[in-house]
């Protein structure tokens, strides 16, 4: 079973770079499933991440409701 690594700011420069590095590394990409956190999952950059196998989730650190578990 893969471990999950969560990357906040997945559609930004820093978060995107972290995701790129994990996907490009054969060992890391097999060991970890990536969960990318972004405020807007409908953005093209977010949808591009989905196409690359990233689990993209919407959350905003300024909104506690968006950080609560979904049931």
The portion of residues forming beta strands comes to: 15-25%
Instruction: State the separation between the terminal residues, measured CA to CA.
Output: 23 Å
Helix content range of the residues, please?
40-55%
Q: What does the overall shape look like?
A: globular
State the strand order across the main sheet. Answer: 1-2-3
Helix and strand content put the structural class at alpha/beta
Average of per-residue pLDDT values = 90
DSSP strand count: 3
Number of helices: 4
Biggest sheet architecture: 3 strands, parallel
Q: Write the H/E string, N to C.
A: EHHEHEH
Q: Which value, in Å, is the CA radius of gyration?
A: 12 Å
Which residue ranges are poorly predicted, with pLDDT under 50 across at least 5 consecutive positions?
none
Q: Care to describe what's here?
A:
The structure is a single chain. The protein has 71 residues and is α/β, with parallel strands linked by helices. It has helices at residues 13-24, 26-31, 44-51, 64-67; strands spanning 3-8, 32-38, 55-58. It has a 3-stranded parallel sheet with strand order 1-2-3. The longest helix has 12 residues, at 13-24. The model has no long low-confidence stretch (mean pLDDT 90).
Outline the fold blueprint.
Elements: E1 3-8, H1 13-24, H2 26-31, E2 32-38, H3 44-51, E3 55-58, H4 64-67
Parallel strand pairs: 1-2, 2-3
């Amino acid at each position: 079973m893969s471990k999950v690594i969560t990357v906040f700011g997945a559609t930004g420069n820093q978060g995107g770079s972290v995701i790129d590095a994990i996907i490009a590394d054969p060992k890391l990409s097999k060991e970890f499933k990536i969960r990318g956190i972004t405020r807007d999952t409908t953005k093209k950059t977010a949808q591009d991440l989905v196409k690359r196998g990233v689990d993209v989730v919407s959350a905003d650190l300024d909104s506690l409701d968006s950080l609560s578990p979904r049931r």
